[in-house]
Amino acid sequence: MEGPTPVSALIHAATMVCTTKDNNINVSSINKSLDPYFVTGYSDGESSFSIRLRKSIDSKWGYKILPVFSIGAQINPHNKILLEKVKEFFGGIGWISASGNMYTYEVTSFNSLQVIRKHFEKYPLETSKSIHFLLWCEVIDLLLKKVHEGFLKILAIKAVFPKGLSDNVLKAHPNVVPINKPEFLPKTNLLNSHWVAGFVQADGTFGLNFIKQVRMKLGFTCQPQFRVTQHERDLMVLNRIISTMGCGNIVKPSSGRDRYDISVANIKDIARIVIPFFEKYRIYGAKYLDFQSFCKGISIIENKGHLTQQGLDQLKDLAYSMNTYRKF
Ligand SMILES: [Ca+2]
User: Fold this and answer.
1) Fold topology of 38-172
2) What is the share, in percent, of the chain residues with pLDDT greater than 90?
3) pTM to 2 decimals?
4) How many Å lie between the centroid of ligand 1 and the Cα of residue 235?
């Protein structure tokens, strides 16, 4: 074990790294290929393993069955680069399309799906999505066997997927009994740090919240927060992220919601743990720009800039040009 580094040195190092970079994409890290655990973490948060049915007169079942692996990302040039990196990671299989305000990276060809399968067998998913992956693999095996009963079995499996069976399919096959979905047994060990970066890429937020505060002389304050959001069924993975990173609290959902958050709002934890963590285990895409803005904000707050009008104005500019406010 290394000896403890003085807090001030850590904070200085973190802010130096952040403030010396500009908003351009860091070319050296773009050229580096993605870490396999990052790809799994990102997929745990953002991908989908699905089974598509297409009516087809050529198929003996009346439907063509397409297992699909896909990842969506909001349209902007930075996210396009991220999806291209994912595609490159998998050896160039699949394609990226754009529709509405979303890009989708999609893999559907049977041979290519074997590449996807091998990756997730070697670097397993950590969330309850792993159950869908297992069932998705079962469908691929049934398609490989090409037995006639396979079709009804596939329908029984598809019935427990998020989108389930369409009304038309249900009408044509009213006797399909959905399978008993295997129970998800979450692990409790520490996570791979690259996995955490990938998961944060998907479901994390670096925020500078600019809030009115009448008590304060300037009338406003800036509250930074690092957040990771997840459905309650994957609460355990949030706890594992907290243990792995060594900071953060679980915030229960407000009434009527089913999503939990990890929140790190303590400036020392942000500067000493969160920022160095994501400097070491990189994220990409537009979220990387938000991370850079976040670092700039933290550096201002560290220097007590938020107590001056000028610093507060700088923070306000940052807050209103990042995350959902960012223009491309
Ligand atoms: Ca997600």
Assistant:
1) Endonuclease I-creI (3.10.28)
2) 79
3) 0.88
4) 13
